[in-house]
Amino acid sequence: MQDLTDIYYFVQVVELGSFTAASKALGVAKSQLSFRVARLETSLGVRLIQRTTRRSHVSEIGQRYYEQCRQLLAAAEQTQRVIDEAQAAPRGRIHVACPVLFAQLLLAPILVEFLRRHPEVQVDLDICHHEVDVIAGGYDIAFRVHDSLKDSSLVMRSYGMDPQVLVASPELLRRQGQPTRPTDLKRLSSVGVINAEGRHFWHLQAADGRTQQVEHRPSLTSDDPQVLYQAVVGGIGAAQLPQFICREAIADGRLVPLLPAWSLPAGNVHAVYPSRHGHTPALRSFIDFLAQSMPQALRRTQQGAPAEPAKVAAENPVAG
């Protein structure tokens, strides 16, 4: 395999027009350049530059070889840039979109620790009450909780599951009755998450694999889980909510789980971003940091412990 430096010297001689010009530009002795090009020619078995006592010119094969060498050097430069970027300290701005409850319970302490470790990074956090268009909105990364990802053009990084529970207040159940089977849910008032279709369903599954879909017509819809939680506690209707939101209210009797023999699909907590490639060192470091911190923070929240992802992340440091 040819020496890349020999190839570089050859390209410079061709582009600058002579050994003399290349010697001046590179600060390398003309005799050294001549030796390196001659060594390259010997290894190839062809004459790249025809020399006389007065002048030199590139041979036909030398010209064709030069064109290929330019591409080779450009690729080598790009390869080095990858290494340089990987070793560079993360800096610059990251644009993030996140639902409000997710930001408050999970992301905020993770961001604090990440920014403490990378003081040259700035984060613009957009608290969204709806699902944003990542590309049109100019976001580097967005967080979502879904059972599946609808936009296949985005890259998804999953962190864990968010169990859901169907609950109602004791007051509502006294008024409208305790359901004992999925079809009984139809008589209950409900609240639910806003969706584009305008129709609302609870998708239930029994332990033996049987499934049941129950349509309901909520008297209140919102994209804020806390609003829905308050409505359920207040007796407005039954709702499907994240388990961690309801845990304390279930424990103290303010909410009652419905149909415990049936389960709901868990939400998948994940981040989405436009591409796997072309990330800045700042964004790449943030994605890597999330991979270490988010699953553990999510587990702690679901277990009812205070979210301390900063502490968890520190126990599993991320290089860079």
> H/E series, N to C?
HHHEEHEHEEEEHEEEEHEHEEEHH
Q: What amount of the residues lies in strands?
A: 15-25%
Share of helix among residues?
A: 40-55%
Strand neighbour order, sheet with most strands: 4-3-5-15-6
Q: Helix tally?
A: 10
- What is the total domain count? 3
What do these coordinates show?
The protein is an alpha+beta fold and 320 residues long. The protein has three domains: 4-87, Winged helix-like DNA-binding domain superfamily/Winged helix DNA-binding domain (Arc Repressor Mutant, subunit A, Orthogonal Bundle), CATH 1.10.10; 97-161 and 268-315, Periplasmic binding protein-like II (D-Maltodextrin-Binding Protein, domain 2, 3-Layer(aba) Sandwich); 164-265, D-Maltodextrin-Binding Protein, domain 2. Helix content is 42%, strand content 23%. Strand 9 (200-206) and strand 10 (211-216) form a beta hairpin. Helix 1 (4-16) crosses helix 2 (19-26) and helix 5 (100-117) crosses helix 9. It is rod-shaped and about 110 Å long. Residues 306-320 have low confidence and may be disordered.
In terms of topology, how is this protein built?
Blueprint: H1 4-16, H2 19-26, H3 30-44, E1 49-51, E2 56-58, H4 60-87, E3 92-99, H5 100-117, E4 121-128, E5 141-146, E6 155-162, E7 164-168, H6 170-176, E8 191-193, E9 200-206, E10 211-216, E11 220-222, H7 225-233, E12 239-242, H8 243-251, E13 256-257, E14 262-263, E15 267-273, H9 281-302, H10 309-315
Parallel strand pairs: 3-4, 3-5, 8-11
Antiparallel strand pairs: 1-2, 5-15, 6-15, 7-12, 7-13, 9-10, 9-14
Helix pairs in contact: 1-2, 1-3, 1-4, 5-9, 5-10, 9-10
